[in-house]
Amino acid sequence: MHILVVTAVPAERDAVTAATAERPECLTLPGGFVLHRTVRRDSAEGPYALDALAAGVGPAAAAAGTATALTAAALRERPYDLVVSAGIGGGFAPGAPVGALVVAEEIAAADLGAESPDGFLPVTALGFGTDAHRPPENLVAAVAAATGALPGTVLTGSTVTGSTARAAELLARHPRALAEAMEGFGVAEAATAHGVPVLELRTISNPVGPRDRAAWRIGEALAALTAAFADLPRALSSRSTP
Ligand SMILES: O=C(O)c1cccc(C(=O)CC[C@H]2O[C@@H](n3cnc4c(=O)[nH]cnc43)[C@H](O)[C@@H]2O)c1
């Protein structure tokens, strides 16, 4: 199994690779992107190579980094089997409290579209592209069972929500939303273009709502990310084929 995990920042990448005892090998790609590769040969589930990439904050940086890694792998004739967008995120109350792990049933672009006098119009209503990706159901179910992750919608936005009113507006449009982050949709667009299945995993560092950066529980969320990736090989080997 060959997996690409894309995070925003190096602290998230390092939390992912900390799930193995191994020291990562670094591989530099065009564009200056650096993969941190770990291989689990001890895993009962078979060899498991994981390339972790900190591609930057936001959907554009995430898409650029993911597409670069996928193209490099395809040219080396060692394509990825799975892409995972991973990191910390905001949690919608009451479904996703701080410390919880969320797996995306749907990876939705929250702010891709147009405003109108009648409210927000998604890009699909304008006649363009896509506004959501749905990861394989069997994979989502297997990850939820193996890790205890809560399945729900994970929103991608270029702006962190900072008010109760905006949180309510997002929930009204996406009633199954459990988490908000800034990269998943960009990762999913690149993975889909390459025909590779995609997942998004978020550990909740803060509630979605009025901005209070001092209250973000980043250490707790990063520790939960490491625990989730320790369980991931079991989840991937246990999944039933569609
Ligand atoms: O300062 C640090 O030590 C640190 C360590 C790890 C991560 C960070 C970040 O600031 C990560 C930014 C990343 O987090 C996602 N995020 C987290 N909460 C929210 C939210 O409420 N709404 C949207 N995005 C959120 C997001 O994906 C950012 O890219 C700092």
Topology at a glance:
Layout lengths: L1 E6 L2 H8 L7 E4 L5 E7 L7 E7 L4 H17 L6 E10 L9 E9 L3 E2 L6 E2 L9 E2 L3 H11 L2 E7 L7 H10 L3 E5 L2 H10 L4 E10 L10 H21 L4
Helix pairs in contact: 1-6, 2-5, 3-6
The protein binds ligand LNDFFVEH.
Ligand LNDFFVEH binds next to helix 1, strand 5, strand 11 and strand 12.
GO molecular function: hydrolase activity
EC number: 3.2.2.26
Function: Catalyzes the hydrolysis of futalosine (FL) to dehypoxanthine futalosine (DHFL) and hypoxanthine, a step in the biosynthesis of menaquinone (MK, vitamin K2).
Q: Could you characterize what this model shows?
A:
- This protein is of the alpha/beta class and 242 residues long.
- The chain is built from six helices and twelve strands.
- A hairpin with a 6-residue loop joins strand 7 and strand 8.
- Belongs to the PNP/UDP phosphorylase family. Futalosine hydrolase subfamily.
- This is Futalosine hydrolase.
- InterPro entries: FL_hydrolase_MqnB, Nucleoside_phosphorylase_d, Nucleoside_phosphorylase_sf.
